[in-house]
Structure formats: C-alpha cells, structure tokens
Amino acid sequence: MSKEAVKDFFKQISPKSYYDIAIILPLLMLFLYPSHAAYGVVGFVILCIYGIIKKDLVFHWNINILWVGFFVLYVIFFLKATDTKEGLFELEKKLSFLVFGILFLFKSKKPLSLPFWIISFMLLVIIRSAIGFVESIIMYNEIHILPAFFTSRFSQHIHPSYLSFYIIICLIITFYWEYKKVINFPKWFLIIFSIISIVSILLLSSLSANLFLFFTILTIIIYYLYKKFKPLLASTIAILFIIISFVVIKYGHFRAINFSETYNNTITFLKNPKEYIDADQYIKKANEKRLILWTLSWQKIKENPMGYGVGSAGDVYRNVYSQYGLTSLMDPLLDSHNQYLRIALEMGVIGIFAYLAIICAYIVKAIKQKKYLLLYVMICFLYFGMWESILQRQSGVIFFTYMITFLFLYEPVFSKKKI
Prior knowledge:
- With 419 residues, this protein is an all-alpha fold.
- Helix content is 70%, strand content 1%.
- It has 19 helices and two strands.
- The chain has a two-stranded antiparallel sheet.
C-alpha cells in the first residue's frame, strides 16, 4: 500500500465523534471482559445521556420501543415468581431490553462512522481468536492432546456457540458492506480476517453455528448461481450441491461434531420420546440431551399454559428432573436450551406471543425497508433461539438486543441502482 492509501485507510476507519466510541463500548466489554460486559453498557448509557443533554442525539420514534414493552411484561410475570431472588436476577439480566430499547430511540444528528464500527468489531473478533489460540496452546502444553484446541477449551470465557455467532455476523456485515462500498478495506486484510474467522468457527465446533454458516454459504451460492447462469442450469447445479452437502453432513464423521450420530439419534427420539428419555446413553451427549430437555419443558408448559412466573423456572426444572430420576441434569441445573420454551415456561402463551410478535415486527420492517443485515440477524436470532436460551446469558441478551436495535436505527439503505 502507498502512503496515500494508508492515510486514506486510517482516515476512513477513524471515529468522527464521541458517539462513535460510545456505540462500540458494549461490544468492547463483551469481547474483552465478558464476565463484566455490563460495564460496557454502563459506559454507553453515560455517553448517550451526555449526547441527549447536548442535543447531539434526537428522539426518533421507532419499533425499538417494543423491547421496553417486553421488559415490562417480564416485570408483570415476576409477580408470579416462586423465588423472588431468582426472579430479580432474571430481571437484572433483561435490563438490556430497557437500555437499548430506550437509547436507540435517540439517533445521532451526525452520520455514524460505520467503517470505525465494523473495523472495531473485526479487531475484537481477531483479538478474541488470538486469546483462544494462546489459551489452547497453554492447555496443550499441559495435557498434550489435540482437544485442547476445540470447543470450550478454545473459548474459555465466552460460550463457544455464542462466540461462533458473533463471528458469523461480523463476517456477513463486513463483506456485505464491502460489496456495497460502505467500507473499502485492503483485500489482504479481508483475506486474513476471513481465515482467522473460519478457523475459529471450526475450532469452536458448535453444531448450531456450523449448520447456520453452512446454510448461509449455501444461500449465497444459490443466489450467485441464479444471477450468473440460466435458471435451468442454476437449478441443476444448486440441487446437486445441496444433495452432496447433505450426504456429507449425514455420513461425515468430524472430530468434535458427529452429524451422522446426531441425525440417527434424533430419528430414534422422534419414534419413541419416552424410551429415549429413559435411556442413560443419551444423557451425556450434548446435542441429544437437548431433545430430552425440550420434551420435558414442553410437558411442563402443557401443564400450565399461562406460565409459572419469571424466576420460577429453576423450581420447575428440578421438579421434572427428579420425577424422571435425571439427577445429572441438576448439578449444574440445565434449562430447556431453547428460548421459546423458556419464555413459554415462565410467561406462558402471552409471553411467547409477545416474543414472536417482536421478531415478526422486525422482520417485516427489515424487508419493507430493505435492511438486509437486520433481516439476517433476525433470522440468526430466530434460529439460535431454537438451540439455546439466548436471553438467559448476558453474552446473548446484550449482544442480540444491541445488534438488533443498532441495525434497525443505523443500517444504511441502498437504492436499486447500487444493487
């Protein structure tokens, strides 16, 4: 790169105001100090209040207010809680609904520096991946086996599935904005970032994230085929690619993820859920264990469709696990590992209806306003919630509430000419 090019690059990625720095703080702490991610949110709140007082941020009524309403619903169902302490802890975790739902009703008068935001996000992914490599090497020197480089040993501070989705979303935003000329990063930098990201995702070995990445790539390839070739040829290539991919998934054997075994065990579960739950062989397998957790959660939801109250889930889980003699699920206590079931368990049909209504509202807005990154994140949010109770961890509730409300307010919309 020439000196002029280097100068232009740094000018492009430089923050233009204090608000550019403020808006990255939640991600900064989430990546670098995940156990105290709330500090980043507090910093963001303080600088936003400063901006509102100075009138650098102006009120902009939008659907982000829905998260405030959802928090109020949690407060209402807290009144049904059997464990007040646990209920208050649940409300504390949901404060992100209130914070981002309110603060992203205020929009900066000055244009946001999106290049600074995305370069910060990318650097945080690189730093977190580097930390993972260093910690894995240290562990490998102690235990001398390759599993030191996989799953929670590679990511000891952020749940592997959550970190995988962070990286996937960062990748998609980066390349979409590069394609749309929002950013103009050197190709060597994008290649290095892509390699680091893909390697990290593979080492994190999250089944849900790997499948989501696979279907993302598959969708992009199919879209490209239809743009490049005639419909008949494109359809033929796409079908062949899908068939080959599913054969690899079904019969492939991977070091940390055995898709074939999971597939066969899922079929066994669907044939006879009761027998599956009683079989000890499945209790120790993470992916298969979810099938048991989902079944038991659904059973308790049917017993009380109006919900047990926010903070009561722990008592409900202990009761049903004891009923089936599943003591291994009680220490540590496992929840449904499904956000929809968790909400339905605590807040019943009212809660799940409200949650799905919020998701649908954002999806409709994203489609109407052609905010395709927001649409992608909503699909990710919808999908990931089937595998994890993503709003039960700060790493989930902060990241996704922040990302959804941020993209709704600041994702640029492109004209048809540019598309």
